[in-house]
Write a structure and sequence with these properties.
Elements: E1 4-11, E2 14-22, E3 25-29, E4 39-43, E5 46-52, E6 64-68, E7 73-78, E8 85-87, E9 92-93, E10 98-102, E11 105-109, E12 112-127, H1 157-176, H2 180-192, E13 196-203, E14 206-214, H3 228-237, E15 241-247, E16 259-267, E17 273-281, H4 295-328, H5 334-342, E18 350-361, H6 364-375, H7 377-397, E19 401-406, E20 409-414, H8 423-449, E21 455-468, E22 477-480, H9 482-497, E23 501-504, H10 505-508, E24 516-524, E25 532-538, H11 545-560, H12 564-577, H13 582-597, E26 606-607
Parallel strand pairs: 3-5, 21-23, 24-26
Antiparallel strand pairs: 1-2, 1-12, 3-6, 4-5, 6-7, 7-10, 8-9, 8-11, 11-12, 12-15, 13-14, 13-17, 15-16, 16-17, 18-20, 18-21, 19-20, 21-22, 23-25, 24-25
Length: 611
């Protein structure tokens, strides 16, 4: 059988390092980027032990390669091009030479002395029956027998209660604490009377320690590198295994006795191996070992490993929830984002009634070009972000979902993913809040923009297909369908009707009398066959609104009945009183045009040929 190498390194006649290695081992001085002595690492598929610092030139960087042979001997390669390897008998292995030697042997590399011996030549690997249970999978419940003879091992009641307390401590830490690695490693040493225990995670194919605990009776060198053979079996079979190692015939008396290791897998919820809880029991000097690992002790290690697995599963769920919240908070309020993370079914595609809002910054291209020329693109983007931040806050304050930004245009939605019976009122309040933000933005950016900031807002209510309108690569919660298209066209009509906020009849009918709105007429927009009726939404503090509403709607009724002369007279009188009512000017223009050119077949519907 292959020999496992026990390697001791001496400096100034004092032992400074001891560990066991399986397979070939390279000895050399510190290379660039490598840790300080005395550290072991994996390089080029084999173990490498750094025994000298980078400036100790009497040791080569790749000085010696030790290869254990099946017959208990060792093949020694001197890979240095200039430095020999001195043997205890006074012989030397010249640079570039290879020889086979009996174990144990003593090597001198520069000022370092290395003792190598074969510690074990036979192994007995045991395993618990069945696979280790993954987190969330419980074993079948069976009656508790008398506390004796579990796998031939006697269990005392006091010991069992003590074990249960330690297990509960690890489980509680796994449920809500960050130190469950350390607690599991400590419990393994205390419960199973191990000399050392490690929590290892499998990362990039390497077993990396996360927590190490040593028994008070063990020396500092007790936390040796884990047995690759045992860990390979754990990974392959996803079960718990322990190994009893028989000492080599030529082992020193101080090392005689039983060495044993045990390892249990740490699994994810799918049953994949994430890591292992690994422990060892050895005889150190005059300290006697307590005996081989028993089946009951292996079962305890497996229970502790399941506790670690539960903790990792909790952390994974917390990380996923946090990632979902970060993703959702791009679109929703923090409260709604938390709801989405807890109820992902709300994100499934479905048909539902929503209110959709589009808001466009007027003169955007002109303003952005002016700022860029004068102050640079960074300042232009700062202005845009400031403006969109202010408009977005109005959406979130009303519990809306921020669907998208397209250049200078913002799209928002109410009524999904969570139910909002008052979604029309929320959308309209958000629109009016956006108007209220304009004076502050103009006060801050007016001189930079060179003109006042203004917006056009369109709102429509209706059935839409809501859900993830993006892809698996980029999430975007939003809506599709005619309701959305009409909301976008409504926003575009604000330029033609010279007003800031337009809402459709479907929205107006759900608002009641608490909002100020006047009917502007019937319209047909590009690529939408159905005729729409639009209303202008006004802020509650707009001066003279009641009279403006009455005069406009009186003139509109005359226009729709074909009484164009009376409509023109009414609008002309009103314009004399309120020359700032540009929306009335648009209707006056339409009435005069009909008088000059005749009414079209679609009268009184205004058919627009551009967005």
């Amino acid at each position: 059988m292959p020999t496992r190498l026990n390697v001791r390194v001496y400096e100034n006649r004092q032992i400074v390092y001891e560990d066991d290695f399986e397979g070939a081992l390279e000895l050399g001085r510190q290379d660039r980027g490598e840790p300080e002595p005395f550290k072991a690492l994996l390089r080029d598929g084999r173990d490498r032990l750094i025994i000298a610092r980078g400036g100790e030139n009497d040791v080569g960087r790749r000085h010696a390669l030790l290869e254990p042979l099946p017959d208990g001997r060792l093949r020694l390669h001197n890979r240095s091009t200039s430095q020999p390897i001195r043997l205890q008998e006074g012989r030397e292995v010249a640079p570039g030479s290879t020889c086979e030697l009996a174990l144990p042997l003593v090597l001198a590399l520069g000022q370092k002395t290395v003792r190598v011996q074969g510690t074990q030549v036979a192994t007995d690997l045991h395993g618990l029956p069945g696979l280790t249970l993954r987190p969330g999978a419980g074993p079948p419940v069976v009656p508790l027998p008398a506390l004796t003879a579990v796998g031939g091992n006697s269990v005392e009641r006091k010991a069992l209660v003590s074990w249960l307390h330690a297990l509960l401590d690890v489980v509680q830490a796994a449920a809500g604490s960050a130190d469950f690695f350390e607690r599991a490693a400590g419990a393994a040493v205390d419960m199973v009377n191990l000399d050392s225990s490690q929590v290892l995670l499998l990362q990039d194919g390497q077993w990396r320690p996360q927590a190490v605990r040593l028994s008070p009776k063990a020396p500092a060198s007790a936390g040796r590198r884990p047995s690759r053979a045992v860990l390979a079996r754990v990974l392959q079979d996803r079960g718990t295994f322990w190994e009893v190692l028989a000492p080599a015939a030529n082992a020193q008396e101080s090392l005689a006795g039983v060495d044993a290791v045990v390892a249990a897998p740490i699994l994810d919820v799918a049953g994949n191996v994430l890591g292992a809880l690994y422990g060892e029991r050895r005889r150190w000097g005059s300290v006697a070992a307590t005996g081989p690992i028993t089946e009951v002790e292996a079962m305890l290690i497996e229970l502790l490993a399941r506790g670690v697995a539960a903790g990792l599963a909790r952390l994974d769920e917390e990380h996923k929830a946090l990632a979902e919240r970060v993703r959702f908070e791009q679109f929703f309020t923090p409260e709604l984002a938390r709801q989405m993370a807890l109820q992902p079914d709300l994100l499934r595609g479905r048909d539902t009634e929503v209110s959709v809002l589009f808001c466009d910054i007027r003169g955007f291209s002109r303003i952005i070009e002016r700022i860029t020329k004068q102050l640079g693109s960074a300042k232009a983007l700062e202005w845009l972000q400031d403006a969109l931040d202010a408009l977005s806050e109005c959406v979130l304050e009303e519990g809306g979902a921020l669907v998208d930004y397209v250049g200078d245009e913002l799209m928002a939605m109410w009524g999904a993913p969570g139910a909002q019976p008052d979604h029309t009122a929320r959308a309209c309040r958000a629109a009016l809040a956006m108007l209220a933000r304009l004076p502050g933005l103009n006060a801050h950016w007016g001189a930079t923009m060179g003109e006042p900031l203004d917006v056009g807002i369109g709102i429509n209510t209706g059935i839409a297909q809501v859900g993830n309108t993006g892809s698996h690569f980029k999430f975007k919660y939003g809506a599709l369908g005619n309701t959305v298209n009409l909301a976008s066209r409504t926003q575009g009509l604000t330029r033609h009707l010279k007003c800031r906020v337009l809402i459709n009849r479907s929205t107006r009918e759900q608002l009641g009398t608490s909002f100020l709105a006047r009917r502007l007429g019937r319209f047909r927009v590009v690529n939408i066959a159905q005729e729409v009726e639009l209303y202008e939404l006004a802020p509650p503090d707009r001066p003279g609104w009641a009279e403006a509403c009455a005069e406009y709607e009186k003139a509109l009724a005359l226009f729709e009945r074909g009484e164009l002369g009376l409509a023109v007279r009414t609008l002309g009188n009103w314009r004399g009183q309120r020359p700032d009512d540009d929306t009335a000017l648009v209707l006056l223009y339409r009435a005069v045009k009909c008088m000059v050119e005749g009414t079209p077949e679609t009268h009184p519907t205004w058919v627009l040929t551009e967005k």
